[in-house]
Amino acid sequence: MRPTSCRFVLPEVTVVEADVSRTVGDLLVADGRIVDLVPVGTAVSPDFERLPQYRGCFVTAALVDMHGHFPPDNILGLTSRFLLLHLAHGVTTVRDAGDVDGTATPAVRDGLADGRFVGPRVFSSGPFVTRAPARWGNSLFVEGPADAERIALELRRRGMQCMKLYENLRRDEIVALERAAREHGLVTLGHVPTALGFEDAPLADAQHFFGVAPPASLPRDHVLDRNAHWDAVDDARVDVIVRAAVEGQRANTPTVVALARLASAGAEGVLDDAATRLLPQMFRTVVWHPTRGLPAYRSPTPSRADRLQRALAAKLALVGRLHRAGAPLRLGTDVQQPFVVPGAALHEELRLFVRAGVAPAVALRMATRDAALALGRSDLGTTRKSACADLVVWGADPSQDLSALSTMRAVVHEGSLFDHGALARELDEDLAMRDRAFERIASSVLSRLALWRVSRRFVA
Q1: Closest Cα partner for 383 from 3, 29, 12?
Q2: Which residues have a Cβ under 8 Å from the Cβ of 291 and sit 6 or more positions away?
Q3: Domain residues for 339?
Q4: pTM above threshold 0.90
């Protein structure tokens, strides 16, 4: 897909900088950067294409998803659609939280590099860093703190920007891995191991609120139980979590949307809405099917649905408590969990943060400037002069009301402007082509085979 323009003026727009300022002017973009914001009507070089269709719009920094996954590179060929869905929702940066089989990261990198795919920049974690036994085939193993340096060097050798600390690690190993990652310029994120509480696992950025429920309260070491069994999280437990997060300035990326989507599927385990219909039909008929889909989520029951709703309410309350206490929070989605769709899920995560008590402008800042800084990029997540031109053009101001997320007019990525209508048409045509192919009976067989290959080792 080709951009509408790469050297342009957005006339008479309101530029929103994080949650601190709004300025009206003509915004100039060229050579991948924000050139300037000048008074309305200022004469500029004829080399700039004036785009009057965006006059009067609002411009913010583009969004960052701080916890996503990309699909394995297999016969289903989903990489390009995942990337385009992110871009079409204004997401121009994704922190990839792990490549389950080692094929997703190369597919993303190669496709973006050679121009076959259009999509966001990706900060990759690659293999999961874990103690044996492995839960995913693409793992690097730790046997003690002394392995941390070797792990960090190996990730750098593979061209990764992040380190994903995964299951089974001990506290001393987490400390050593975090230190080695800092020394080698790697951004860390991780799971609190099931045997530890959040306060005992000194992760710089803990994922999914794992470790909030006391370890002894979990029926088993299983992803569903860790997300849903929160009845033991009382006020005293929340006080412990908030204190540990604030005192250590330890971030949480709660990915509340993953739980909210599962809860929305209810006791039947079925969810068919506008977001899920952005992915091919085989996701609804195979991958997310309540009895033959992802093994970890099969066989929903009314009691499970009730437990999910209680856990969702508790997690939203914790987001509010952490925010009011000044603890760092990141917005991520855990794309590839059931019903969690690239791009659309980050919009829902923003709305969930607002539901938890975070002001729209602050939630937007968390998903732009704060996220970019956490990734070490001060030139992203901002609308200031000379910054990388990663922007979203809206018909209304989302920093005042997140209903404006439905008014997207264009996305600018590294200075290239993509009209939202053109992105939507591209997605529609791609989906129609995929669904025609998957209507054939062989699609079900191939889908189930690919799903089995990915999930056969996923036990938690």
Answers
A1: 29
A2: 298, 299
A3: 62-125+191-383+421-455
A4: yes
